[in-house]
Each structure stands twice: as C-alpha cells, then as structure tokens.
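Justification of computing resources. Each target in the renewal requires a structure prediction run like the one illustrated here; the chain below, 332 residues long, is used simply to show the kind of job we budget for.
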Amino acid sequence: MLTQYEALPPGLLDLPAARLGEVLPGPTLIHLPGRRTPPLFVSVLLHGNEDTGWLAAQSVLKKFASAELPRALSLFIGNVEAARTGLRRFDGQPDYNRVWPGGEEAHPAEAAMMQEVVDAMRARGVFASIDIHNNTGLNPHYACVNRLEQDFLHLAVLFSRIVVYFIRPRGVQSAAFAELCPAVTVECGKPGTPGGVEHAAAFMEACLHLSEFPAHPLPPHDVDLFHTVATVKIPEQLSFGFGAPDADIDFVPELDHYNFRELAHGDAWGRVRQGRLLALDETGTDIGDRLFVYRKNEITLRRPLMPAMLTRDERVIRQDCLCYLMERIAYP
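Resulting structure tokens:
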C-alpha cells in the first residue's frame, strides 16, 4: 500500500537505503513545498539495490534543510523492503519498474499502487519527472526517454549527451509519466561508483531550479542519440556463465566491457553447447536469428549494434535481461 506525507518524516534524511524501513512503512510518496509549482517528481529505489537516487535526494534535501526548495518536489521511494537486504527485488515480488500504467505484467496490487502515484501527481500537476537508477554492468552515465520530443530531449541532456530512446519494456515509470510531462530515466553507473551520487544530485538540483523548458530545438551536435532495437534474454531452461565451458551458453568473460561500444558484424559473444538467445523487439517478437549468428558453436553478431546494461550478475540477468541492443539514430 502507498503511504503519502506532506512533510519529511523525522529522521528520514539520516538513514541509508537499507534502514528506510525503520521510518517508512513501505512505498512512500512525499510532497514538499517550494517557490515554484507544479512540482518536480522524482522516483528512487524502484530497485532495492540501486541506492544512488536515494543518496542524491538525501544530499539535495539536506542542502535545503533550512531553505525553501526552488520548486515543489514530490519524492517517491519505491522498494523499501528489497532495499533492506540490498536486492533488486525479492523472488516472487514484481519489478517495481514494470508495473506502472501501460505495463503487461499481472500484479494487481502493485499496479494499483503505481496508478495511485500517477493519479496523485496528475491531480497536483507535474512539471517534469526523473527516475534515478543504477545498473550492474560497466556503463557510462546516460539518460533514457520514451518520446523524441524537444522538452524530453532538453531534460535528458541536462544529465548526459548520451540519450537512449526506447518503448519496451512496458510498464516503466518514465513511460507512465510521459503522458503527464517531460520524463526521463537516468542511469548512474554501478552503486558506489565515485561521482554517481554527485552527478544525480546535481541533475536533480538543476531540475528544481529550471523555470521552464527552452523553446528552441536542441542543437543536434549536443546529443548522441540511440534507439533500443532488442532486449536480450536467456531462456530459463538454459544454463550460462562467463568463462564456464560446461554451461549451455558460455559468454566471453569480458562481455560487460562491450557496453556502449559500437560492435561490428562478426564480433564474438561466446560459445554455445545448446539453445539460443532470445532477442525481443518492440513488439515482443523474437528477432534473435536476425541479430546473432550461431556457427561452429560460436555466437557472433550478425550486424553492427551497440549493447547497453550488459552485466555478469546472474541473478539480475535471470530477473531482468542480459542486455539491450541499440543502434545510432538521426536527430529528429
């Protein structure tokens, strides 16, 4: 169930993500006043092991502890329960970034809660939405949008010139809020990586100071724009590993170093004893055979593509995916 507050609960800003459950009963939406309205919406800890967003929000709110916020702020703190043990989510628990309005997964209680968040922000009006995440592989900091509209792109490049456009997976926070306002997801590298919290906090503060979005188009040379063409998954029945010759699929040990490298046709991903990778396009169709070649038990790329979010964390791979595959697109 969702809890809403009109002020910060006492002691909240002194707690790390793992101890938020000492003050918060669960997923919580906190509304704070500021000089300008409507509010900025910020979501953190949709995945319990990704604490950069909470640490960034903590930093910003401590900075303004004795001063008025430049803009009203509504802060949603998501999977408090999973944060307690540093997990993305518990087994059997839905992914908190797949159950927002527009999602395809059947989790009625959580979907109703996210709908309540959206309804609350629709009623208040919302200036912009930012969803702060970490990832488990070696990735640069980058922004993601679900619409190629100027306000969305202006918001994204406040965080990074690397911008990824995607419409799948469904049920993500940024897509739900794109119906209300400019919305962006920001990826801040691995938790604990130097500079991640500072970058997220600076972005959040910049958004709080923003009075309006520029009327002029974003200069094309200010953005490197990519489009997600497929989500790569490993079928549940197949075993896999990294430098694990006995596994059904044995990936090269350095696979996560491929992130945000524009790979060429023929680049090797690993060896396969049996089975194939799934690569789901924006319609949910498996297009793996159009992207990968299986020859002499080796997996190679069929055409140039750029991976993102490749990780060696086997639990995350099972709960989410191996990676996303992208292609560079022209500025709209």
